Give the backbone structure.
Amino acid sequence: MNILITSAARKVLLVQAFQKALKDEGMSGLVFAGDSSPDSPTLSFADKGIVLPALSIENSEREWEFFRDILDVCEECAIGLIVPTRDGELPFFSNFKWNFDMCGIRVAICETDTVRLCQDKIAFAEFCKNNGFSIPNQIADITGLPVFVRARNGWSGGMARRADSMAEVAILKRNWGDCIIQENIDAPEYTVDVFSDEDSKVLSVIPRQRIRVVAGESIVGRTEKNAAIMCECQRLAEALKLKYHSVIQCFYDDGIVKFIEVNPRYGGASNLSFRAGGESPRWLVQMVNGRIVTAPPIGEFVDNLTMLRYSKDIFIYPDGKHENLAT
């Protein structure tokens, strides 16, 4: 089975995790990395790199055009599984999930309603309040500072920021449009890797504390067997009807799990969970191929495993030779 990782960008470890999954399952197949930029470093690490057309969905006609372009690539490369990885492309792939499926191509994405709910911060906050999940207190009238401001449809750490003055709040609202304003919480923050089957039954929950964060992405993280976080994340994932791999962000504030957001895709630092025993790329390959999913009972993973992330430089010579150096 051939696999296509879209918007591969710098997701080298994700591509390698799927290469390992195929090998561990004794399956033949290639992992393709696709990106709209030919300078995506991950293209150099995949079995084959593909420059994909940029997703532009200004109208439904362009969306169908993109579908046909991706379908042509999939048919040419005999792709059996697509793994979307960028927030901006998730609505497209959820909308066209069944169109791909009719062509014999599985897409690892949950349903459109779930994607839409997860990507709308205000709707997500309302969902949590209506279903008994804790979130940071929303603030309608600011009477104290600092506060935390998130763009309603922000897709990166750059669209979520602490504001220490009313002037900062005004600037963020002007730049981002609709926002949700919440209390600023000074408590440990976690990203939780959750893997669910096609019926939204949760099979794995691995919390990892975000010890150091740069540009919204954890560069130092540590797994933690926190029963409260695992229990609440399992409950939230099933309530949202998540499928496959998702990442849930929350605070653990004086024993209370307060949810921030959910991204129904692999996270930039999910490799920590893979190494701790949460081999979701392998489980996804097993699931798509009708094999028994070998996920251990929830809570069985390596506790207190720390990951320190660093970058690599890739040099591409005129003759096509690649050289990789750690920096």
Remarks:
- The chain has ten helices and 16 strands.
